[in-house]
From TrEMBL:
<keyword id="KW-1133">Transmembrane helix</keyword>
<feature type="transmembrane region" description="Helical">
    <location>
        <begin position="171"/>
        <end position="189"/>
    </location>
</feature>
<feature type="transmembrane region" description="Helical">
    <location>
        <begin position="53"/>
        <end position="78"/>
    </location>
</feature>
<keyword id="KW-0812">Transmembrane</keyword>
<feature type="transmembrane region" description="Helical">
    <location>
        <begin position="110"/>
        <end position="127"/>
    </location>
</feature>
<feature type="transmembrane region" description="Helical">
    <location>
        <begin position="343"/>
        <end position="361"/>
    </location>
</feature>
<feature type="transmembrane region" description="Helical">
    <location>
        <begin position="422"/>
        <end position="444"/>
    </location>
</feature>
<feature type="transmembrane region" description="Helical">
    <location>
        <begin position="85"/>
        <end position="104"/>
    </location>
</feature>
<feature type="transmembrane region" description="Helical">
    <location>
        <begin position="134"/>
        <end position="151"/>
    </location>
</feature>
<feature type="transmembrane region" description="Helical">
    <location>
        <begin position="373"/>
        <end position="392"/>
    </location>
</feature>
<keyword id="KW-0472">Membrane</keyword>
<protein>
    <recommendedName>
        <fullName>Glycosyltransferase RgtA/B/C/D-like domain-containing protein</fullName>
    </recommendedName>
</protein>
Length: 456
C-alpha cells in the first residue's frame, strides 16, 4: 500500500502520450474506433469524473492492479518463508523502467496491470498448492479478458498462461489447445469490439500487410507483388520500408499517398497478396522480419535506440490532460539509464526466459515450478509472436514478457538453487546476447533522436 501510494504521488495525475490523448477524446465523445482498444476508451468513459477526472482514474486503476499483483506474489513468498525472494519481487516492481512506464496511461500498461493482478490471484493460492476459489477464479478471468481486449496481441500471452496453469499436462495437447484458444479468442475479440462495444472499423488490421508487402517489394521492385513497380521504387527511394516501424508507410508526407491504392483493398485480398509474396520471395520476407525482430528486441542496435524511455510529461493537448510534477521527470532519467542496460533489452530477458524454461522442465511438478513455467510460457509465446506480427519497435510492447520472466526466475530460485551447470549455461546464453549488444551500442552510429528523423 505504501509503494502504491508513493507511485501515485510520483506520477499524479498520470502521463499521457499521443495514443492516450486520442483514446481520451473517444472516451469524452462516447464513440470508439478499433485503432485503439475500445474497451479501454469505454472504461475511461465510465470512470471519467472520478478522483479528479482526466487520466487520473486510469492511472489509479493500472497502479492498483500493478502493485496488487506484485504484492500478492511477494506476500505469498514471505508467508512461505521465502523472504529474500519476496524482497526481490518488490525490487523488480520498483525498477525505474517498469514503474516509469506504469505511470503512463496506455493500453500496454493497462495490460501489464491486469496481467499482474491475475497472476497475483493465481499465485496467492497456487503457490501454496491450494485450490483456486470460484470467486477468485472469476476475478482472474475478468482481468485476463480485459488484458486480452486492451491489447490486440495480448491473446498470445493470456491464452498460454491459462492453458499452462489449468490445461492438460501433455505438451502436444497444450500446444494444440493454445493454438485453438488463440484463434477462438481472436475471433471473439473482434465480435466484442464491433458487435458489443460498437467500435468503428479503422482498417488497423491491414497495417501488417502494408508493412510486410512494402518491405518485400522494396528489396526487389522489379519483382514486386501487391505493389506496382513504380510504387515499390518510391518506397525504396524514400526509405519508407524501415526495420524500426511501419509509420513512414502511413504518413502523408512520406509514402502514405504511394500506398493509397492498397487502401481500397480489404484485409482478405491484402493477406492473400502477402501470402503469395512470402511464397515467391521467402528470403526477402525473412530478411525483413529478422531485421524488425532485431529492432524490436533491441539487440544489435545503436545506443539510445528510440521508444524505450517512458516520457516524463504529457504531450500538449487541448482536452485538459495535465502532466505530473518535476519528480516524475527525474524518475524517468533513471528509467533512461535502466533502458540502456541489459535490464532494458527484451532480447536479454528472452534469453533468460529460455534458460529458465530448461531449468523448470528438469524439475518435477511442484507449485513454484508450475506457476513459473506458466509465466515463462506466456512470455515466450508473446515474444515469438513478434517474429511475424509486429509493426513497431516500442519497448512498452515487451513489458509483460520482461516482468513475467523476472517473476518466474525468482520463483525458480525460491524453490531451489540452480545447479552449477544451469547457472553456467544461463551465463553463457546471456553473454552471447549482452556482449554483441554492448559492442553494437559502442560502435554503431547514433540513433535518430526525434520522430521526424526516424521517418526520414
Amino acid at each position: 500500500m505504501l509503494l502504491l501510494l508513493g507511485s501515485l504521488a510520483l506520477f499524479w495525475p498520470g502521463i499521457v502520450t499521443y495514443d492516450g490523448i486520442a483514446q481520451f477524446g473517444q472516451a469524452l465523445a462516447g464513440h470508439f474506433e478499433d485503432w485503439h482498444p475500445p474497451i479501454m476508451a469505454g472504461l475511461w468513459h465510465a470512470l471519467h469524473g472520478l478522483v479528479g477526472g482526466g487520466a487520473a482514474p486510469m492511472l489509479v486503476l493500472q497502479m492498483v492492479l500493478y502493485w496488487a499483483g506484485f504484492g500478492a506474489i511477494a506476500g505469498t513468498l514471505a508467508r512461505e518463508e521465502r523472504r529474500h525472494a519476496a524482497v526481490a519481487v518488490l525490487c523488480i516492481a520498483g525498477l525505474p523502467l517498469f514503474l516509469g512506464w506504469q505511470g503512463v496511461v496506455l493500453k500496454d500498461t493497462q495490460m501489464l496491470g491486469a496481467m499482474l493482478a491475475a497472476a497475483g490471484i493465481f499465485g496467492w493460492w497456487r503457490l501454496r498448492g491450494a485450490r483456486l476459489p470460484v470467486l477468485a477464479g472469476v476475478a482472474a478471468i475478468v482481468l485476463l479478458a480485459y488484458a486480452t481486449l486492451v491489447r490486440s496481441n495480448a491473446v498470445f500471452a493470456t491464452v498460454p498462461l491459462v492453458v499452462m496453469l489449468f490445461g492438460p499436462t501433455r505438451w502436444w495437447a497444450r500446444a494444440v489447445l493454445t493454438l485453438a484458444g488463440i484463434v477462438a479468442v481472436l475471433g471473439l475479440a473482434q465480435a466484442i469490439n464491433h458487435g458489443v462495444l460498437r467500435a468503428a472499423a479503422s482498417g488497423v488490421e491491414r497495417t501488417e500487410a502494408f508493412y510486410d508487402l512494402s518491405a518485400i517489394a522494396a528489396q526487389d521492385p522489379a519483382q514486386a507483388i501487391g505493389l506496382t513497380r513504380a510504387e515499390a521504387r518510391t518506397v525504396l527511394a524514400r526509405h519508407c520500408a524501415k526495420p524500426f516501424f511501419w509509420d513512414p508507410l502511413g504518413t502523408a508526407d512520406r509514402c502514405g499517398p504511394t500506398l493509397e491504392r492498397l487502401h481500397g483493398l480489404t484485409a482478405g485480398p491484402l493477406y492473400r497478396l502477402l501470402a503469395e509474396a512470402i511464397v515467391r520471395h521467402p528470403l526477402a520476407y525473412a530478411t525483413h522480419r529478422l531485421g524488425h525482430l532485431n529492432s524490436t528486441e533491441r539487440w544489435i542496435v545503436p545506443a539510445g535506440w528510440p521508444s524505450a524511455v517512458p516520457p516524463g510529461a504529457s504531450e500538449a493537448n487541448p482536452i485538459g490532460l495535465h502532466s505530473p510534477g518535476p519528480a516524475a521527470s527525474r524518475w524517468q532519467v533513471l528509467a533512461r539509464w535502466n533502458a540502456e542496460l541489459p535490464l532494458g533489452w527484451p532480447a536479454a530477458w528472452l534469453a533468460l526466459a529460455v534458460c529458465a524454461i530448461v531449468v523448470a522442465l528438469r524439475r518435477p511438478p511442484a507449485p513454484f515450478r508450475d506457476v513459473a513455467l506458466a509465466l515463462l510460457g506466456s512470455a515466450v509465446v508473446l515474444e515469438a509472436s513478434f517474429t511475424v506480427l509486429s509493426i513497431a519497435s516500442d519497448l512498452r510492447y515487451h513489458l509483460w514478457p520482461m516482468v513475467a520472466t523476472a517473476l518466474a526466475t525468482i520463483l525458480l530460485w525460491a524453490q531451489a538453487r540452480w545447479s552449477r551447470r544451469a547457472v553456467l549455461g544461463t551465463g553463457v546464453a546471456l553473454a552471447l546476447v549482452i556482449v554483441p549488444g554492448t559492442v553494437a551500442r559502442l560502435i554503431l552510429p547514433a540513433a535518430p533522436t526525434s520522430y521526424a528523423a526516424l521517418l526520414r
